[in-house]
């Protein structure tokens, strides 16, 4: 079981690396792309494991309505997630991505499904 979990986390991290700067996606969108639509929470756990690995842009993964629900897991404090997004041009107000529909990156659309 541990091996399948680590493979799933690796898959999640690979998708997260493809999110372009200035765009965001959701835990559920990554789960759907990986074929496990009901596993958004597992995607969240995988993103929590990514903190500290600068090659994985965990700050670009938010909840389904654009709220920075994972902000408390960032090294350096909860403001780090917002700071990284804003540095990429994503507007955030009251812990929520503004113009969410316009900056949302859907891996199903952008990457297609095999």
Automatic annotation (TrEMBL):
Q: Enumerate the spans annotated as Methylated-DNA-[protein]-cysteine S-methyltransferase DNA binding domain.
A: 7-90
Q: Which Pfam family is an annotated match for this chain, by its short name?
A: DNA_binding_1
Write down the superkingdom of origin. Bacteria
Give an example GO molecular function.
methyltransferase activity
**What's an example Gene Ontology biological process for this entry?**
methylation
Record carries keyword Transport: no
Record SUPFAM superfamilies: Methylated DNA-protein cysteine methyltransferase, C-terminal domain
**Which UniProt keywords are given for this protein, alphabetically ordered?**
DNA damage, Methyltransferase, Transferase
Query: Mind telling me what this protein is named?
Result: Methylated-DNA-protein-cysteine methyltransferase-like protein
Question: What species does this protein belong to?
Answer: Marinoscillum furvescens DSM 4134
